[in-house]
Structure formats: structure tokens, C-alpha cells
Write a structure and sequence with these properties.
The protein is of the alpha+beta class and 156 residues long. It is built from 3 helices and 6 strands; from the N terminus they run H-E-E-H-E-E-E-E-H.
Length: 156
């Protein structure tokens, strides 16, 4: 987990990558254990918990952000990876509690500060979701919420 946090600014409870399995200049493989106690299972769906599809996509996009940081040879703490496009999303299988998701992301193109990627998340060697997406790096600016909360532990 420490290695993951060195690359991207995401943190719990919205961090959906546990470990980097393989990483090179064109692709990444990561893992995320989906535990029975994940916060989203309380409401999605009580009595039959299923990981929300949007969070499966988020895990793929976070893995892509790690790949982008690696390609830039720096962390993304000063930049925010922002999704600019999502295409061809296909949900094939559900992700249930106590599953291990293996996430594969490939960099297909880079134009200026835009990165084009495709990804798949697998559970038990079966595709759960696949998608094409694009990200841009945006310089992190202080926003009013950060300035108002300076030195406070809880948001207003």
C-alpha cells in the first residue's frame, strides 16, 4: 500500500488499489482485495452486497494514474489526474465481498498532457469490467475549502 500511496494522492476510504504487481512504461497490473466490511456494501445492496460498477471503474482509473505517474517519473502529489473521457464501458461480472480484483491497464497513446488508456478488472480470471478512458494532469491549486479548513481535522 505504501508504494501505491507514493504515486497517487488518493487515500482511504477512496483508495481502490492495494498493491502494484507489475509496472512498466506501457502497462500496469494491480490488485485490490474487496473485503466484506467495505463501506459501500452497507447500502449497495443490503442483503446482497455488490461492488458498485462506478467503483470498479475507479479502481481501473486509479491504476492508470499510477501508470501515468510512473511514465512521468514522479509522484502525482502536485498534480491531480482528472478523467476527461470514458468510453466502451462493459460490465461482465459482479464483484462480491471477499473477492480479489486484478486490474490491468495499458497506455495506448499520449498527446501533450493527455493520456489514453484501456483497462480491465478481473475476478477469478473472469473480466468484471472493461473500459477505455483518457486522463489529463491538472496542477493542484489551493481551493477555498482547503484554506477554510487549515489546521482543522473536520470539514465544516
Amino acid at each position: 500500500m505504501k508504494e501505491v500511496k507514493a504515486y497517487i494522492p488518493h487515500r482511504e476510504p477512496f483508495l481502490f488499489v492495494d498493491e502494484i504487481v507489475e509496472l512498466n512504461d506501457k502497462s500496469i497490473i494491480t490488485r485490490k482485495h474487496i473485503g466484506r466490511q467495505e463501506y459501500f456494501f452497507k447500502g449497495h445492496y443490503p442483503g446482497y452486497p455488490v461492488m458498485p460498477g462506478v467503483l470498479m471503474c475507479e479502481a481501473i482509473m486509479q491504476s492508470g494514474a499510477i501508470l501515468i505517474a510512473h511514465c512521468q517519473e514522479k509522484d502525482l502529489m502536485g498534480d491531480v489526474p482528472v478523467v476527461t473521457k470514458i468510453n466502451n464501458v462493459k460490465f461482465k461480472n459482479m464483484v462480491l465481498p471477499d473477492s480479489d480484483m486484478e486490474i490491468h491497464v495499458e497506455l495506448t497513446d499520449k498527446i501533450s498532457s493527455a493520456y489514453y488508456l484501456k483497462g480491465k478488472a478481473f475476478v477469478n480470471s473472469k473480466v468484471a469490467v472493461s473500459l477505455d478512458f483518457a486522463c489529463a494532469l491538472v496542477k493542484k491549486e489551493k481551493n477555498k475549502t482547503e484554506e477554510n479548513n487549515k489546521g482543522e481535522d473536520t470539514p465544516r
